[in-house]
C-alpha cells in the first residue's frame, strides 16, 4: 500500500537547506608515527610490569634455608645451656667461660659441629653493638644469615670488659 501525498499547489517559499560541509577522515588513516608511539608506550608498560613484579615478591624470598634457621636456634639454645649456671638462673652466662681463647667454637661451647660460618656475639639490648669483646666464631659482615637471639645476663665479666649498668644483654647467633 502506498500512501498518496496531497499535492501542494502552493509554491514553496522555503528554499533548499544548505548542505553541511564535512571533512572526511577516511583519507587520513593511521600514520606510521601514531603506530610507533602506541607500540612504544605499550612495550614500556609491559617492561615496567615485568621489572616491578619481582620486587613485590622479594621480601618473601629468602636466601636462608630453614635448616640454617634451625641450626642457629639449636646453637643459641646449646650456648645458653652450656654457659649458664643452672643452679641460680638458667639465662645467666659466665662471661669468662664464654671468652676463653683456647680451642675452637666447638670446644668452647660443647658443640659437636658448628661449621665455619657461625658468629656468636653478645650485644646490648637497645643497640646492635658488641659488649666489650664478647664475640666468637667467624666475622659477620652483614651478609644474608639466619639468626637466633636469647636474652641473657652475665654474672662474671671477663677481665678487661666492663659491663656498665645494663641488667640484660642479647646473645645473637648467626649462621650463613
Automatic annotation (TrEMBL):
Q: Which UniProt keywords apply?
A: Membrane, Transmembrane, Transmembrane helix
Segments crossing the lipid bilayer: 35-57
Q: Which Pfam families match?
A: DUF7287 (PF23958)
Would you tell me the protein name for this molecule? Uncharacterized protein
Species of the source:
Natronorubrum thiooxidans
Amino acid at each position: 500500500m502506498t500512501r498518496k501525498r496531497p499535492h501542494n499547489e502552493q509554491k514553496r517559499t522555503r528554499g533548499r537547506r544548505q548542505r553541511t560541509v564535512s571533512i572526511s577522515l577516511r583519507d587520513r588513516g593511521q600514520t606510521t608515527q601514531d603506530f610507533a608511539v602506541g607500540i612504544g608506550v605499550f612495550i614500556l608498560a609491559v617492561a615496567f610490569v615485568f621489572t616491578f613484579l619481582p620486587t613485590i615478591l622479594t621480601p618473601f624470598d629468602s636466601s636462608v634455608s630453614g635448616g640454617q634457621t634451625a641450626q642457629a636456634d639449636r646453637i643459641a639454645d646449646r650456648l645458653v645451656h652450656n654457659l649458664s649456671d643452672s643452679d641460680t638462673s638458667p639465662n645467666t652466662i659466665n662471661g669468662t667461660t664464654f671468652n676463653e681463647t683456647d680451642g675452637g667454637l666447638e670446644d668452647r661451647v660443647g658443640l659437636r659441629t658448628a661449621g665455619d660460618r657461625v658468629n656468636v656475639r653478645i650485644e646490648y639490648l637497645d643497640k646492635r653493638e658488641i659488649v666489650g669483646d664478647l664475640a666468637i666464631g667467624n666475622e659477620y659482615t652483614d651478609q644474608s644469615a639466619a639468626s637466633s637471639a636469647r636474652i641473657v645476663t652475665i654474672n662474671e665479666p671477663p677481665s678487661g670488659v666492663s659491663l656498665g649498668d645494663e641488667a640484660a644483654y642479647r646473645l645473637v647467633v648467626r649462621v650463613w
